[in-house]
Structure formats: structure tokens, C-alpha cells
Amino acid sequence: MKSYMRKYKATLAVATIVALGASTAPAEVYLGGFTEVTHALRVESNNALDGGLTLQNRDYPRGDVRAQLRLSGSGERDEYFIRMDFLSDYALNKDVAVEIREAYLKLYVASWLDVKVGRQVATWGTGDLVFVNDLFAKDWVAFFTGQELSYLKRPQDLARLSFYKGGTTFEFLISPNYTMDNLPTGERFSIFNPFSNRTVGLADAAPVIEPAKTLGNAEIFARISGYLGSAEWALYGYRGFYGQPLGATADSMLFAPRMSSVGVSLRTSLRGVLVNAEGAIYNSEEDSQGTNPLIPNTSIRTLIGAEKSLGNDLSVSAQWIGELTTDYEAFAAPFISNGALAPDEVRHTATLRLSKLLWYQTLRLSFFGFWGISDEDYYLRLSVEYTFSDDVKIIAGANWLGGKQVNTIFGQFQDNSNLYVRLRRSF
Amino acid sequence: MMTRKTMMKRNMMIGLLVIVSASFLAGFSRVSASETDTTARELLDSVHKTYYYAAEGGKAHVKMTLTDKKGRTRVREFWMLRTDIEDMGDQNYYVYFTKPSDIRRTTVLTLKHASGDDDRWLYIPSVDLVKRIASDNKQEAFVGSDFTYEDVSGRLPLLDEHEFLADEEYNGKTMKVVKSTPINTKKSGYAYRKTWVDPDYTLPVREEYYSSKDKLIRVFTIDKIEEIEGIQTAVTRTIKNLKKNHATTIEFNDVTFKVELKPKDYKERLLKNPPRSLR
After folding, report:
1. What is the CATH number that goes with domain B2-272?
2. Is 70 exceeded by the pLDDT of residue A351?
3. In CATH, what number is assigned to the domain containing residue A113?
């Protein structure tokens, strides 16, 4: 409870600073938001979870009531925006919490420069729910348990500078401290523990060490982008850490190793088909030779996607993702010497999306499937969204996860497939 | 029912008359026949120019009301900015939503190409996502309304064959009625349409869309015309879908033809940073 109070006070402080920071010019203040109930139900019982310990009921991976408030205003050369959630999580037995999802100040400094400072979400790249050059923090727990898509992005404290020259944009973002992806911890979802080699709940999960919140651990993101006719191109750079705790220590703990990357993307429309391609090198700084089996090797990731609208508000899209491990022999050697099967040198994943709108777009049907070709695992997302009126909508969906092995990304979650329903009223 | 039947009869008679007179003229001289078509095309060209290319661009606050068959309404409000690159040619459009609250600050950028597919992007602020939209089909509904993207940004007259039907009384005024048949009906969503042109304003005050079975499926009307900055502007427009018994009315407010943005401003920066006048 105390920590929530502290959080609450911090929220107020941030909100006040942002509001005061904006121009004093008389400007219209906008207030809006929504109230929402989300309830997710596991499709089969999961005995690995610590029912009653933190999770109220093992059958409900999510159950919360939230109110989101959005506040914004703008002056001659600036703009502020605050978005915060007041939330009561009855699945995790927590009292009212406050989450500041966004609280930023945007300054239109010059015709060639914009600055956006504060808590914000950032997205770039061309993938559809697949990220190659977008190394901003994600919230996979929200994604797997039926929250709205905007919750997939984990808010980060960032200073974003955008420079414009001709048709080219140069963007530079810095976060004073690293934000790891929010991954299942064994609390809402059981997870695979690589040290005990089995699926576990929170109590038996491998401990994760987060990097210290120091300036030395700042994350830096950069992008140069522009247009070639109607094609969009971009070059990316990043220095920070892997978004997930992919490294292991000798004493059985997990951590996010240092990583830097460079990449490129292209997106254009070819005869009514949207096509996109992306590539990046993830340079594993703590294992540049690829000899340390506890830290991922440098890898090359590629993505190719296509999307076509078939008319009548029906669209289909597909993507292929390839991940090549460099120094593969060094990487595979420890597996082979232990008599185990090493992961493939190239990991293939494919996705398929189908979406259809009906009844004047008040009914939205959506299917998105991840298919781990190399990992032999899958994640299917289905949803039906019905808009009763401008203010009220209901969303029902399914998150279906599984695979052949319990040590793959989606395979480890096979006992966590869930159905969810979400009711939202906006104001 | 009676009136529609009578109208259809009349339309058929007009049609017959046109066909007879056209073939009659054709018998005498080819030039005259093509002249008839040219007149219809010229008329629709000037209508298209007045309606979609007024001034060099402009800005308006749009209120869109959707009414379903049970009379329930939904409302969308947005700012729309336009900058023309070339008369009857490429245009850039920018839409900034203000209502409903769920989609507030969502923006859409459309680069309309007179030849070829449009380029379209959508910006969803809650995820900071710039999504490119596959847009080879201009017949898709604009934000779930009865207006298609083509209704909003215009269908070029060169895509259809035009034929002058008659002068007809409508709303106490003599209108020119033109029949337009898409050259490629596969993608048009209808077989042909008729346009009632107000000769004083050169505006399409009424349009009727027909199926291949000559069934009236859709009606567009201009309900209110106002003079703004010396330009006759259709400030209220309605489309009724007769098949689905659904209607959409759009009202334009705060209209100006002062152009705020240059063609080169229509880029990702604009999607994320609305102009000062809209914030």
C-alpha cells in the first residue's frame, strides 16, 4: 500500500510539472478517458502456478477494473499530454494502483526541431506485432492476457529530439535508464525455468537481475527516415540491452545482456499490395566471439511482410521472420558436447493476419497467428469487437499458446491459453 | 412506391429519348454525337473541379452523423485539411479526429494520385504507430460511414463515360441530368449513376447510384449550399444507402479556403504533430 501511495504522489508531481511546464497562454484543456473491466479465464487448470499466493485464483490470469484519464492542452509552441490509469487488480489481490502511462511535454522549438520529453510510448519499424528495429519496451503480459493493443507498449521515460531537413527526419531518443520488457514472471502465467528445466510458477522462477538505474545504463535510440517517391526508408541504431533477460549467470540467475544494433527498413505499395522489409544486426556486446553459452550470440534478423485489402473491409497480411545466429559452431558446441540438440542456425517464424469489419465497422473480427516454424510453437490471437455506441464497446477474444517443447517462447505458455472479455465505456 | 415507379418510368423514357436522339444524330454526323458526350464530360469536369478542387485547398471542421435503420446515431468529428498540387490532379488530404473520445488525436494522411493508387497512412497516438493502409480500393467506407474514400476525395470524370440525359426540374430549379457509366465497373461498386447538376453553382446537388439490375441503391444529396469566401460551398451533404437503410450526413463548419499547409508538409511529421490551429 505504501508503495502505491508513493507512486500516487509521484504521479501528481509529474502531472503538475507537466501542466505547469506548458505555456501559460489561455488554451483549452481537454479531459477524456474511459472505464474498463477486463476479465481473462484460463481454458485449463495450471497447477504450476502459486494459487492463492499472489494470484487470487489460478483460473484468472487477469481481472481488473480501470479508469483512464487523459488530460491535454497546448500553447503557441508547446503541448502537454497526460494519460494515467487508476486500477484495481482483483486477480493479483492488489489495492488501487496508479500507472502513469504518458506524461510528456512537446516543444515545437523551430521549423527544423521538435522535442518531446517525459513518459511516453514510442514505436517505429514496419512489422505487424513483430519487432526488428523497434527496440522500445514491450509489455507481453498485457498482450497475452487480453488488454488493448496500446498496452503492448511499456511506457518509457524518454527525451525525443526530432530534426527535420528537407524530406529527411533524424530522430534521437535517450532514456536515462533501461526499461526491460514486461514478461510473464510465473505470477499470471507459468513460465519455463531453464535451470530446473521445467515449467514453474513465481516461487520457483529463475531470479531476474535488472541493470542498475544509472546513467551508464541509459538506452539510446536513433533513426533517420525519409521517402523515395511513395516508398518509405529508414536506418536505425540502438545501444542498450536485449529487451528480455536472455543471459544467464553462473549462479542460475537471468539478466539482460548488453546489446547494440543497426538496421534498415523499407515500405511501399506495389500494385495495391503493401510490402515491407526490415533487417537488423543485434550485436551481442558481452559475447562478441559467440563462445559464451550463457549469453546469446550476435544475430541477424530479417522481416518480409505483405498486406492486401481484399475489398469489403477484409484484409489479409503475412510476414516471415528469419533470425540467423552468427558464430553458430561456437554456439552449438556446448549443446553437442552435452549430447543435446542445438537450436537451428536460422530460426524461422511466420505470421498471418485476417481482419474483417462488418455492420458499418461496428463489428470487428480479427485473427492473428504466430507460427514458430523452427521452434514448432504457435500463438493464435482471435478477437471479436462490437461497438454498441460511440462510447460503449465490448471485446471478446482468445489467446491460444502452445508448442511441441516447453522451452520455446510460446511452447512454455501452453497451460496459459485464455479467453477474455473486456467492456469499455469512454467519456 | 408510386413516385419511384413514376420516376423510373420517366427516367426510362428519358433514356429512350436520348438513345433515339443519339442514334438519330449519329446517323447524320459523328461529330454531333461526340459533341453531346463532350458537353456532358465538360459539365462533370467543371462540377468535379468546383466540388473537389475549390480554391487551392482549405480547411473545415466536419461533423459526420451516421444513422442506422433503427434511428440510432453515431457521431464522428474531425478537421480536414486539403492542399491541391494540380487542378484535377494530385491532392493531399489530412484528417485529425476530435470525436469520439476513443479516437481523438488519430490522424489520417491521404496522398491522392489522379493516376494510380492513393497513398494512405493512419497514426494511432496511444501506441505512437504510423500504419500504412493498403488502399487500392477507393470504394471502402470512410470511417465506417456511407461515404467511401472516393466520395470524400473524388472520382475523376475520366474514369467514366458520360451522357447528357435531360434538363429536369429539381428543388424548383432546372438541373442538368447526366448519366455516368464507369469504364471499369468491376471496382466501382455500382453500374451507373445519374447526377443532377445545378447550372448556377456547378455543384452535384443529387446523385443516384444504380445496380446492374437498374435498382436504385444509393442517393447522394447536397442539402445546403453557402457562399464562403466567394465560393459556393456544399456545407451539408447526405448519403443514403437504400439497401441497408442507413444514412450518413456530413456538415462542414469553420470552412476556409486559405491554404495552411504546403504539399510537402503532408508527411509523417504532420501525422504526429497536428498544426497549431487544430490542437
Report:
1. 2.50.20.10
2. yes
3. 2.40.160.10
Provide the mean pLDDT of chain A: 91
Written as one letter, the residue type at A138 is K
CA distance A102 to chain B (A): 9
Q: Is B134 on the interface with A (CB under 8 A)?
A: yes
Phi, psi (deg, nearest 5) at residue B244: -100, 0
Cα–Cα distance for residue pair A178/A212, rounded to 1 Å:
8
Element of type H or E holding A115 = strand A113-120
Instruction: Look at B264 and A427 and tell me if their CB atoms are within 8 Å.
Output: no
pLDDT digits (tens, 9 = 90+) for B99-129: 999 999 999 999 999 888 889 999 999 999 9
Phi first, then psi: what are they for A137, rounded to 5°?
-70, 140
Which of B109, B140, B241, B245 should be substituted to probe chain A, the one whose Cβ sees the most A Cβ atoms within 10 Å? B140
Residue type, B88: M
Whole-number Å distance between alpha carbons of B104 and A150: 14
Q: Is-contact A101 A85, C-beta < 8 A?
A: yes
SS3 assignment, position A196: coil
DSSP letters, B77-94, are: EEEEEEEESSTTS-EEEE
Contact A123 B129 (CB under 8 A): yes
Task: Tell me how many domains chain A contains.
Answer: 1
**Range from A96-100, A339-343, B253-257 carrying the lowest mean pLDDT:** A339-343
Do B127 and A150 count as a contact with CB atoms less than 8 A apart?
yes
Contacts of B141 in chain A (CB under 8 A): 313, 360-361
